[in-house]
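Please check our next protein.
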Amino acid sequence: MLLENRPRITNLWSKVVDGENGEWLSRVIVESTRPYEYTLKEVNGSILLECSGAEINMPEGKLEINDGLLREINIAQTGHDTVRVQLSLDHPAMFKHAVYKEFPSRLVISLDRLFITGLLSGKKIVVDPGHGGKDFGGRGQVSLLEKDVVMPIANNLEKILKKTGAKVTLTRSGDKDISGEERATLALNVNADAYISIHTNASADNSVVGAATLYAPHDNGSEKLAIYIQEEIVKKLKVRDRGTAGQPGLARMDKGIPAVEVEVVTITNIVEEVFLRGLTIQERAAEGILNGLIKYFAFDRLNAKGDKK
């Protein structure tokens, strides 16, 4: 039974924000009816918020975040009047916090995303919106064209990659015809650290659904990059995992450049075609690809090419 005079934690959420002085932050907001006593500390790669004299007035359990730094948040009533909030991180982060006592009271934890910018700053990433011009790519049952829908995903990816300090090159910025050889040559000319081609799947069977990530057949980190991106795309989009596989069409890429082709969903399925028309998927697909790149450069430094002159 809730006690009227006890602070109640009523809401918990997170977002990625630009802070002061050029900061780029993962921010967690814990809302309550009134302030409470608390401790905040780092324990084994997680951030623990221990709340005293408080109780939960919201669902307990896990909240998946997957923003490239913050993986998930768990909240639990650990005693009669104690609450634990655990922030599980994929990478190390410095943090700070502030309390705002107006109603609702808010405890705000800000995690610095410097680890991510340290990984990707200066990396040369070629983003390829697939198809274009007379090459429509796949077509949905309600006439959505693959060449059109991959463009906003590519633009979103370019935007967030630039925030990390990466050097981004798009193979096309409009509805242009461009050959596979031209795309490969562009990646070679900029001495790319990774080549990301964005597509959708198309199938004669309109019941087929889900995402897949294909990789260049040469062994230069392409398969590992595909595995990481596929994992993160599935987490972000909550779609069927169609796995990873070799893509012979990427054999034209320079063997020193990790190259993948991301099929974000299946355009020929009516449900996923409708999904593709929304802004949400266009943003989340880009975020999933970014998260895969972060993991690739973080955990596979030997497979990555490293900084270039």
